[in-house]
Amino acid sequence: MEVRGYNRALMDALAEPGQGAWVRRGPAGGGLMGATEGASIGGRVLVLNATFEPIHVCTVRRATVLLLKAKAEMLERGELVVRSERLRLERPVVIRLVAYVRVPRDVRRRKITRKAVLARDAWTCQYCGSERHGLTVDHVIPRSRGGESVWENIVASCAPCNRRKGNRLPREIEMHPRTAPRPPGPNVFIRVAAPKVPASWEPYLAMAA
Ligand SMILES: [Zn+2]
Questions:
Q1: 139 C-alpha to center of ligand 1: Å?
Q2: What is the Å distance from ligand 1's center to 150 Cα?
Q3: How close is the Cα of 127 to the center of ligand 1, in Å?
Q4: Domain boundaries, the chain
Q5: Calpha distance 100→117 (Å, rounded)
Q6: Cα(155) to centroid of ligand 1, in Å?
């Protein structure tokens, strides 16, 4: 079944915050462990569209609801199980929506944040290639010279490069971004939402890159 149009209810369901109470699976699979320990085990789940395109990151609890409602299928499971009096579930790591959700174009062109720009540029100064801490974002064509705050005009820049360039145009000081800036793919937002991407996610993110 294909969901036509923008399935707001489903996207809203995915976005709802919450944390499941997860209990680490015992060596023999038995023995109930303390709920306090379980409550501290949070984590994020990578959500793929029916087409296997990564579209979202959600909480374990939200992913579990989607699995229980048969709105998603489990692709990668973790080492944890959730336990309640009536439930015993594997911890989802990567799930795939059963029905295709059309992701609106404007979602891909979300608000430009420093984090998203740095993630797009792999946390590397686009002028000198440095990966030092404290990266800033730089308008390639300065705002004072009519440059717009759009993805195509903003790059990651180390503070020294940013200072050196000042309000000059790239050709005036021969400072050109190493790669032409452009709007990022959806993976960038997944990396921003989960800065520490689990190894089990990488194959799915790589397929979409
Ligand atoms: Zn630099």
A1: 13
A2: 20
A3: 5
A4: 2-104, 109-173
A5: 28
A6: 11
Could you read off the pLDDT of 181-204 as tens digits, one per residue? Answer: 998 877 787 888 777 788 889 888
Distance 51 CA to ligand 1 centre (A): 39
Burial track 108-143 (b if 16+ CB lie within 10 A, e otherwise): eeeebeebbbbbbbeebbbbeebeeeebbbbbbbbe
Distance 62 CA to ligand 1 centre (A): 41
Output the CA 131–ligand 1 centroid distance in Å: 8
192's tokens: 């921003």
Render pLDDT for 98-123 as a digit per residue (tens, 0 to 9): 999 887 665 456 678 898 899 889 89
Domain 109-173 grouped into CATH 1.10.30.50:
yes
Tell me the whole-structure pTM to 2 decimals.
0.61
Distance from the alpha carbon of residue 209 to the mean position of ligand 1, in angstroms: 26
In the reported structure, the alpha carbon of residue 111 is separated from the centroid of ligand 1 by a whole-number distance in angstroms of 24
